[in-house]
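**Protein fold record**
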Amino acid sequence: MKLMTGLLSVMIFSASAKMPGFDIYVGDVELHDNRLKVSHLKALTKRSEYDNQPLFMPDGDSLLYTAALTSKKDGQKDGQKDGQKRVQMAEQTDSIFVSLKTGQVSNLTNSIESEYSPTLMPAGKSFSVIRAADNKQKLWRYPLNPEKQFSELASELLTNINPVGYHAWVDSNRVMLFVLGEPNTLQLVDIQTQTSQVLDENIGPSLFAIPLSSLMSYTASIGKGEDIQWQLKSYHPETGQIERLTTLPSGAYYYAWAGNGYAIAAVDSILMQWDKTNTDKGWQTFADVSDVCPKGVTRLATNSNNSKIALVCSL
């Protein structure tokens, strides 16, 4: 299985740049006899472009995701005089809101820059993104209102920390960041003081708050090449304690938390679960989605009440 790691480096798109294609499927999920059950999977997106990074909203019936769109940018050829410009067609990404109940779709960022990883902020009135512009990847904030577009009201949250790949909010003032480098590091950042603390290194892209707890989670790699393993770890924001929870199944790169507190991951088209309260069972298969995702699942997510699931399918 070829692992798509998303933002592995600063991504500046040219007219010829083309991102890999993914589709998002959404279905029902329920817990039956301690096993998650998936049904009624339907395509939320159905095109050859990049649709990825789904995030359910608190209502459980709407979500945000990242979509690659083609935009026009002004460019200037070498030798052209000032004022003589040409129009370039370039691919960039925006943050999309969709209601599963009404079918409403809104582009919440609608900018000429690229935004990734839309994440609801703790107060619930804004969402944060990784914004790629000017050879940098920084953490930005946008107001959350699907009825309007507020790109002119976007604001930069962190001035000096760059390049950021992924993030997860601890509380209204603290955020965990995947910061790209040699090696990639996990950093805890204070927004008010603009200071950071390195917590771990060689980490993966999936950062989350663990449901039904006060802990955060992330993955860190051990080994190299074909022997690499991804350890799932917890971090306590108040005590600073880090603990190893388990190791992801061989072939899994991303993980998420189901609303009931199970860790979930995908190996090719097989979905697997891990119950932190019953670790003796290890990772267990709960669904085979090869009929809708024959080329494999990368990211996955459920809503907080554990009734809906979203899968990112490779094309």
Summary: The domain at 22-72+91-314 is CATH 2.120.10.30 (Neuraminidase). Residues 1-16, 75-79 have pLDDT under 50 and may be disordered. The chain has one domain: 22-72+91-314. The chain is about 0% helix and 50% strand.
